[in-house]
């Protein structure tokens, strides 16, 4: 319309720097903290806020589809890593920020899943934060609560944030998440 911003179809590809990606992940975490995500998607206001803050920070004119597309890309990376970690013989090396396994385990897995080859030596420095954003975003009843389970008197932060904290603590307790400086201590 009246915007000079190139639309998603006009751009071939957005070049995401590590700084841009880290900032975007922090924006998503902040929107989660504010309760602006239901299930697996952020609400319209969250996307509007993230877009304006992101564009102001980096002096660009991206559209909502650009951020949504990158969120989808991050979800795919998270999901691919999570699927690898669910296989026997694979584990997470938090120091090197990558999935590790003995060579024979990798070779056997890649034989059946050739697309997994890209993750053999690929670091995912933001994996712990992606766990916070994308873990348990499907409605499987795992953390469902009825109105009888909620203490409305002292739930000052809201149900969404309470469930979020429960997930964070779970991820920390099983060792797949460490908190970035953005969050401090919970």
TrEMBL record:
Myb/SANT-like domain ranges (all copies): 15-109
Pfam family, one: Myb_DNA-bind_3
Chain segments annotated as transmembrane: 161-183
Highest taxon above the source species: Eukaryota
UniProt-recorded name of the protein: Myb/SANT-like domain-containing protein
Keywords on record: Membrane, Transmembrane, Transmembrane helix
PANTHER family associated with the record: EXPRESSED PROTEIN, MYB_SANT-LIKE DOMAIN-CONTAINING PROTEIN
KW Membrane (keyword) present: yes
Record's keyword annotation contains Ligase: no
UniProt source species: Gossypium mustelinum
